[in-house]
Amino acid sequence: MTHTGVHRWRLPAILGAVLLIAAGCTGSGALHRAASAATASASTASTASTAASGGAADAPCTYKLITHDLPTWARAGFQGPPFNTVPYVTSSGGDIVAVLFGSMLAPPPSATEGQNKVLWVPKDPSAGALTVDAHLVGTSENVDIGDISFGPSYVDVPKPGCWRLTLHWIGPTETVDIVYGAR
Hints:
By secondary structure, this protein is α+β, with helices and mostly antiparallel strands. It has helices at 3-23, 28-52, and strands at residues 88-90, 96-100, 117-122, 129-136, 142-149, 151-154, 161-168, 174-180. The strands form two sheets. The chain has a four-stranded antiparallel β-sheet with strand order 1-2-3-6, with no helix packed on it. A four-stranded antiparallel β-sheet has the order 5-4-7-8, covered by helices on one side. The chain is globular. The relative contact order is 0.17.
């Protein structure tokens, strides 16, 4: 790869990061849009870089924050309507919902502070245990989140970006992409 080829993929990633930082001063909707744009730029840059080096590329980040009604099967424990005030993401197979607490998840300020609460809701109430692995899209960085129960848990990662969480449970393995912004 030429020196010029290296800089060609860095520019979109740098611009995306600047947008993400600048959006931190705006409302949560703008922050989510900026995080999605930054993730798309980083993912595109990573794909171009990996393809140029002959390696396999990650699938692009599919983070999609949903703010309309929770699926009927995911409403247990919530107090009456409206069910559209809770932000969530749905797993790749649609069998698990991750309800996000807070307007944007972010890496904790220190390794001892769990700050990112996620409520895991399976479509099948007898789903059993859940084991989660995390991969920073566009990199080789992996984190073992470990065994957690369906229900509330802390899901912390070491740095901002689009994290692909692989969900191992009684059903088929599924994934969910979640963007963690900068603090």
